[in-house]
Amino acid sequence: MEIVEGIGIGIAVILAALLILFVRRALVTRSGGIIRLSVRVTTVLDGRGWSPGFARFVGDQLRWYRMFSFALRPKRVLSRKELVVERRRLPEGQERLSMPSDWVILRCTSQHAPVEIAMARSTVTGFSSWLEAAPPGAASPRMASQDWPAA
């Protein structure tokens, strides 16, 4: 009987964890404006260190949430005022195995540190528009390089 109780408790814990993940995702995505976005969290091994997730545009911030996390708060917050895209490239080597083939990698700098983000090619246009948006009369140096590879 103890084994059956142990199995029952284990199944209950697994179901509760799955429920929490789905409720978390519903809370985070409730107001729309969600994009799929991977962030490179470590550069120890070349082409590795990508973490899948989704991001939400909230005013002047891009809030990134890890796909498999119980946290309700974003893991990273990128501010439009501090973010500059240095270059754009296609996935190379091991990266091609860890992300969809139509994704583009953007190397950005912010006030804190460089960051690499990957998103679908069709999403880059919306991201660029959001990044370039500025109040009337303000100049925007957000797109540092104009020699990007053709999409």
UniProtKB/TrEMBL annotation:
Pfam families: DUF2550. This is DUF2550 domain-containing protein. The chain crosses the membrane at residues 6-27. Keywords: Membrane, Transmembrane, Transmembrane helix. InterPro entries: DUF2550.
